[in-house]
Structures are given as structure tokens and as C-alpha cells.
Amino acid sequence: MAKPSNPSPSPRLLVAALMAVLLSSCVPAMTSSAQPSALCCSKMREQRPCLCGYIRNPNLRKYLTSADGKRVMRVCGVPYPTC
């Protein structure tokens, strides 16, 4: 009897999981009017090269393109990317 195959997670899910870990400190500020923490800003600056990929991901887009997401980037000194 053949073993059932374990399909690999989709790249979109992997990106979503990675972003959730790397920018988890920003979620409170991206989903409310709370100010971003120093850790959030540090992680946001660190992840700047990846932001277009996050924005292209339908699971993450809403966080980064929302008014609060854009505010977090602005407060952290991270320009909104031109993708």
C-alpha cells in the first residue's frame, strides 16, 4: 500500500508564517491606533527588503496596506515600498 504523500506548504503560507514571526511585535500597532514599540520598528526596518513580498501576499496585504500599517511604517521611519 502506498504511503499518503505529505504535500509541502504553499510558499504563500510559508511567507505568512515567517512574517507573523518576524513582525509579530507590530501586530498590535497594525491592528489598532497603538504606537509601535521599539522592537516593532527595529523588526520593520530589518524586514524592509521583504515588504513588497509581504504586500503581494493576500494573507498579509491587509496589515501592511491598511492605514494603521502605513502609519506604523511612517512612525518607524520605513518608507512605504513602491512595488
TrEMBL record:
Coiled coil: none annotated. CDD domains: nsLTP2. Residues 26-83 form the Bifunctional inhibitor/plant lipid transfer protein/seed storage helical domain. Keywords: Lipid-binding, Signal, Transport. PROSITE patterns: PROKAR_LIPOPROTEIN (PS51257). SUPFAM superfamilies: Bifunctional inhibitor/lipid-transfer protein/seed storage 2S albumin. Gene3D superfamilies: Plant lipid-transfer and hydrophobic proteins (1.10.110.10). InterPro entries: Bifun_inhib/LTP/seed_sf (IPR036312), Bifunc_inhib/LTP/seed_store (IPR016140), nsLTP2 (IPR033872). It holds the Pfam family Tryp_alpha_amyl. GO terms for molecular function: lipid binding. This is Bifunctional inhibitor/plant lipid transfer protein/seed storage helical domain-containing protein.
